[in-house]
Amino acid sequence: MPSTAPLDLADFDAVWHADELGAAHEAGVCATGFAALDAVLPGGGWPVGAMTEILHAGPETFAWPLLLPALGAAVQARRRPVLAVGAPHPPFGPALAAQGLPPAQLLWVRSAAAASRLWACEQALRCADVAAVLAWLPQARPADLRRLQLVAAQHDALLWVFRPLAVAGHAAPARLRMRVEAAGAHQETLALHILKRRGPPLEQPLELPAAPRLAALLGAPRLRRPDAAPVPASVPMPAPVPAPKRQATVVRLAIPGVVARPAARRRDAEPRTVTGTAGGPHALAGTAVATA
Fold it and tell me: Is the dihedral of CA 277, 278, 280, 281 positive or negative?
């Protein structure tokens, strides 16, 4: 007869207990640059080879104050650029450089179409020449997010996806999910609410320094371009539309007056549009970038 004796789970090292913080994913983690945040994340950092979803209530995402320490370390370690897909405002190069991220190592992909953003994001994840991907995808459907999660896992990629707070009640494939908002009388801190992690719920929000002046510089309204209008915080989910061809414009940032390498194009030249198909070369193959 089969034994009915209870199992002692303590004898199984591979069994994860839900009341304990999970271990790092197989691909490892990337330190956040904040000791307090590392202490509450599985493995002690941002997951590599998995999606991290960050929810925000307004057009300000607080992406740069939160992610700059990790992005600077990723660029230094991998010697590859960071790709920002659909950022709501043009990033401000000098402020990025002051925080350890060389502007020449940041590629800004401008596209208003949801399908184009998803396509560019997927191609970047598949590209070995990209250190990390930041994507603003307010209109992405659950199937789109699952696809990006799978691609990130296949290529051990660093991926952060920014979504409106309105989707907080929707199911998400992200391994790590959090809500970020400004806190303090002068918005001097960031309040992080961990919504999903491999571990017990975090009852109290975690507060981190927000560097409000840095956030203001990086998203200054006076730096907005006519074709870079901020994405609304909440938008209706669109029905899938066939789009055999994707278009996105890739812009390499640089500090005015500083030339990193000889450019074949004039400073005032418009960036070229990158086109491709889902089955063709990745989005960055043979692309031309213009100095902003």
Answer: positive
The answer to whether the predicted template modeling score (pTM) of the entire model surpasses 0.90 is: no
Query: Buried b / exposed e across 141-158, counting CB within 10 Å, b at 16+?
Result: beebbbbbbebbbebebb
3-state secondary structure the chain: CCCCCCCCHHHCCCCCCCCCCCCCCCCCEECCCCHHHHCCCHHHCEECCEEEEEEECCCCCCHHHHHHHHHHHHHHHHCCCEEEECCCCCCCHHHHHHCCCCHHHEEEEECCCHHHHHHHHHHHHHCCCCCEEEEECCCCCHHHHHHHHHHHHHCCCEEEEEEEHHHCCCCCCCCEEEEEEEECCCCCEEEEEEEECCCCCCCCCEEEECCHHHHHHHCCHHHCCCCCCCCCCCCCCCCCCCCCCEEEEEEECCCCCCCCCCCCCCCCCCCCEEEECCCCCCCCCCCCCEEC
pLDDT at res. 203: 84
Amino acid at 169: G
Q: What's the pLDDT tens digit per position in 40-59? A: 999 999 999 999 999 998 76
pLDDT tens-place string over residues 182-198: 887 777 889 999 999 98
